[in-house]
Design a protein that fits this description.
GO terms for molecular function: cytokine activity. One of its GO terms (biological process) is positive regulation of myeloid cell differentiation. InterPro entries: 4_helix_cytokine-like_core (IPR009079), GCSF/MGF (IPR040117). This is Colony stimulating factor 3 (granulocyte) a. With 199 residues, the chain is mostly helical. The radius of gyration is 19 Å and the shape is elongated. 60% of the residues lie in helices and 0% in strands. The protein has seven helices and no strands.
């Protein structure tokens, strides 16, 4: 009989992989994350008309200084579970990052000529926040509240070019954050082989 080699247990994971409610919320969160990732390119095309500002351009790193000048904060870091990066920390960083990008999009929204796809994106971010909040409530006993709006957010949008650069950089950063979220959520999924090995 073949044996399955299993690594060291991931901190805090084992108590939740067998929780059907958590796994159902996790599934919904993953679906919303994929929806957002699929929507970002269309939203970018709809509101960014500067030819040199491309979503997946290798030149985007050169705009880091502009992001700082405009006042776009970096997203919270996401990484695999460890002793130093617990499940609660992961979920809180997800919530903070979703709130940040929703606030950033809403800040730029009034200056956009085409808004519909960006508005839809903010709604999806809100829906995903609700799901992550549910997971956080399951993972800890003390009360959990919705994240507050990002404090001190003030973007320097002097002209139409700054608006174009701002929405471009926000969507680039959001795409990277959602990709990290997708990896983290997948790492929490219950593997059928793991489930069988529990018996």
């Amino acid at each position: 009989m073949a044996t399955t080699t299993r690594g060291a247990p991931i901190p805090e994971k084992s108590a939740l992989v067998g929780n059907p409610q958590f796994q159902e919320i996790l599934k919904d969160s993953s679906s919303l994350t994929h929806k957002i990732l699929q929507s970002i390119p269309g939203a970018h095309r709809s509101c960014v008309n500067v030819e040199t500002l491309r979503l997946n351009s290798s030149e985007n790193h050169k705009l880091v200084t502009l992001a700082s000048t405009i006042g776009i904060p970096s997203a919270p870091a996401l990484s695999a579970l460890s002793d130093n990066f617990t499940l609660n920390t992961m979920l809180r960083h997800m919530l903070e990052g979703l709130q940040l990008h929703k606030d950033l999009l809403n800040h730029v929204l009034p200056r956009l000529e085409v808004k519909d796809m960006v508005i839809d994106l903010t709604h999806d971010l809100n829906d995903l926040s609700v799901q992550v909040l549910k997971m956080l409530k399951l993972s800890q006993r003390e009360g959990v509240s919705k994240p507050n709006p990002t404090l001190g957010l003030a973007l320097d949008l002097r002209g139409s070019y700054e608006v174009q650069v701002a929405i471009h950089l926000i969507l680039v950063q959001l795409q990277g954050f959602e990709q990290d979220m997708d990896r983290c959520l997948r790492s929490l999924e219950q593997n059928p082989l793991e489930e069988e090995a529990e018996y």
